[in-house]
Amino acid sequence: MPRKIKDLIRDLTRAGFIDKGGKGSHRNFVHYNCKKPITLSGKLGSDAKKYQERDVKRKIEESKS
């Protein structure tokens, strides 16, 4: 069962990312250790796509270094 968008947002928030907002269902998250923001699209209750889960995991790892 795929994770929900709200779960990915929770993971980013716990890792220290800040939601800078966006247009429509898009949300931009920034972290002071990451050069580029990560953008998540979709409603909170929607299933996350595989690439979204992969991108969130990579950004969280990048923020730790």
Key words describing this protein structure:
38% helix, 65 residues, alpha+beta, single chain
Q: Could you explain how this protein is built, in words?
A:
This protein is α+β, with helices and mostly antiparallel strands and 65 residues long. The protein has 2 helices and 3 strands, in the order H-E-E-E-H. The chain has helices at 5-14, 50-64; strands at 18-19, 26-30, 38-41. A 3-stranded antiparallel beta sheet has the order 1-2-3. Strand 1 (18-19) and strand 2 form a beta hairpin.
* Main sheet properties: 3 strands, antiparallel
Q: What percentage of residues falls in helices of 4 or more residues? A: 25-40%
Using only CA atoms, what is the Rg? 11 Å
Order of helices and strands: HEEEH
Strand portion, in percent?
A: 15-25%
Low-confidence stretches: none
Distance separating the two termini: 30 Å
